[in-house]
From TrEMBL:
Name by which UniProt lists this protein: DUF1449 family protein
Keywords: Membrane, Transmembrane, Transmembrane helix
UniProt superkingdom: Bacteria
Lineage of source species: Bacteria, Bacillati, Actinomycetota, Actinomycetes, Pseudonocardiales
Organism: Actinokineospora globicatena
Membrane spanning residue stretches: 6-32, 53-73, 85-107
Transmembrane helix keyword on record: yes
Amino acid sequence: MDRLLLAAFSFPAVVFTFLIVVVAGYWLLVALGVSTVEAVGAADPEAFGLGRVPLSVALSMVTVLAWGVSMLGDVVLTTAEPSPLFPGVLILVVALAAALMGTRFAIPVLNKLLPVRLDLVGTDCVVRTGRVDRSFGAAEVTTVDGRTVLVQVRQSGDRPLRTGARARIQEYDRRGGFFWITA
């Protein structure tokens, strides 16, 4: 255990250890509802060659993979001392290259798992939160291939929709990251 802590907080893994803390903090904010998955690189992920995978997911994958490879390289290729500079730089470069390749191979798999947002427009959904109004709500949608997806929704009517209400998805609000629905 001491060896792993030494590896995590010595060069080269310390670079990625810091980034792991940042990534963990970001995902904690997402889990608490303070931020969204699309907050990082709110622009179209397809512009980065990611298809439907949000930039935050891709960057998190690169960080975790690079950290893991750098830890493995440090533990395997060095003794109990922190990495000397040259092997450390080599491990850093190899870890980053391996992480980028690993993420590059994972993106197509993730794209198959994520529904196309525009494909959901025109489909029916079922409200899963206590209410759906102009500022809050989530609904469950069944995709063409039979999977169910929970999406953020809003509705412009005066009477909020309640749990279990059926509605139709009208359009996707790219800026807000949610769908507009009508009962």
